[in-house]
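Let us begin with a simple case.
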Amino acid sequence: MSKAVLVTGGSAGAGFAVAKLMASQGHRVAVTGRSAETGAAAGQVLDALSPGSFFVQGDAVDAAQGAAAVAEAARRLGGLDVLVSAGAQTPLGPLPFEQMTPAQIEEGFRIRVMGRILPVHAAIPFLRRSGNGSVVLLTTDAARHPTPGESVIGASGAAIILLTKSLARELTRDKIRVNAVALTITSDTVGWERMFANPQFGNGLFAKAVARFPSGRAPKAEEVAEAVAFLAGDGAGQITGQTLSVNGGLSFGGW
């Protein structure tokens, strides 16, 4: 059954991989993003996969702008069944906490947390009308496994994991499921390209991690998309409040 799907921050990276997969499955997909140029290109690809799919420009970190984008997407889709909250990238990668400025710490939390949760807040009224709504938030495995240089990244991710549990309980009465997918180093994403483009703290950190994947490689964005699409779909109708790690066996355990 075709669903009305919105992927915030879905014009590039893992979010775009999710959007393409869900469009190829016959769903009507809208994506949001900050760049009009990148978004327009993404919208054309999605419309070719599933006619009627499109891009709406908007910054998920800006409450008013993000809410307007969600409302516009829901209007053009004729409702909203699925929200995938992705994107919200910060230009600052891994860095030891002591070396971060207070402004960088504040920005890290603001972008990584607010950029994920504000779209959910804006989408709830539309998802409630669906009668079978689903939310999937993208987060990070750094929330489950402490890593040097990822204190703020991990703490922000942990906030998303707990929010996933809390919202799942709150929204059960509205028949809205809420789950999350936690990423590790993922190829075919903007973060991957940025991380290995120039020598920096995170470059060395993640180069070592990539060498430790049991399968010999990092997960691909398309593999993350498969997990997201499953949790968003009817096949996961009895799954809510959960966070699924797509980490290629790099780490185990967690909470």
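The second case is a distinct protein. As before, the sequence precedes its structure tokens.
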Amino acid sequence: MPVLPRALEIQGEITAIRRDIHAHPELAFEENRTSDIVAAKLQEWGFEVTRGLGKTGVVGTLRRGNSVKSIGLRADMDCLPMDETNDFAHRSQNAGRMHACGHDGHTAMLLGAAKMLSETKNFEGAVHCIFQPAEEGGGGAKVMIDDGLFEKFPCDAVFAIHNTPGLPVGHIVAKGGPILASADRWDIHIIGRGGHAAHPHSTLDPMVVGANIILALQTIVSRNVDPVEPAVVTAGFFNAGSAYNVIPGGAHIGGTTRTTTPKNRELVRRRIDEICEGAARMHGVEIKVEHRPGYPPTVNDVERARFALDIAAGVCGEHAATDKVASRMGAEDFSYMLEKVPGAMVWLGNGGGKDAVMLHNPRYDFNDMAIPFGVSFFVRTVERFLGDGKAA
């Protein structure tokens, strides 16, 4: 089952939609124009359309037959708050807004799949096409879930695609278990006692305390986390002082933690607290730690990932579908959906090889040649999952 011929036939139409969305990017929970386009297309193709979940989210439902089985397909719609430096015709027309992560492509591919499914209806059950806002830091998936997404649209499985620069076009990778990390932030506030730089003995120098904390934080991964399990603890800034001859009264350290398991997520949080408690006692200062949990790890269901890879092999060929891929330390709020419903995210090649323009780069652009592969993957996933029962 290679790329579906119909996916090639509609590639031009879907590409035009993709480029229009790219030219008019919208930030988290502001995807009004994009949502209007999505809703209008879904209605045109005979879907039941529900709007308002997650503020600007859209769900399109297509039913056939009497089966109670259902599947969810998810695409994100928001852009990033950055300027685009490309000069092609469909570059961003909105200053400080850019589709630098390919959400325009994700939305377009799911629309292409919706169009084909409405034409063929080669399935029994319900397909829920979930167009989600605010993936870029806004947690739109969680907001949709809190608004009753899976109560109103029950799903036996949920699948998503994310494009991957550097991976050849026409290749899909997927694996069971953690594929992306959690993304947590933390702040450490050190309250010392400032004074003259010539008299350090009369101060409680927060900079010395902070320097020791930063060094100690590096031991969490190297000495507390199993070496075969990926984890990152990064101090992103250290703010203290403003004059050459003054020891400041306080310091502020902020950073991020990336882990792929709940166990390590909790371990890192606990060790940050313990290191700061020890530093406070050792140096006689006060230290306040604030943890700001972000997205949880993105964990594919093993069976659903195996199913998705089998579909990918049929669409792309055995040579272009593999589970030989390492977890990455980026984060995705599709993780919230996977906590509620067994499913999988697959990575679709955006091309470029070693010279690829990577995600979140001001010169990035989604590769329209990938559209037929993504559309075919979504369509075949629905037809198999709601067809012969092999995915039950």
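The longest helix spans residues 262-283. The first strand starts at residue 48 and ends at 51.
Keep these points in mind for the review questions at the end of the chapter.
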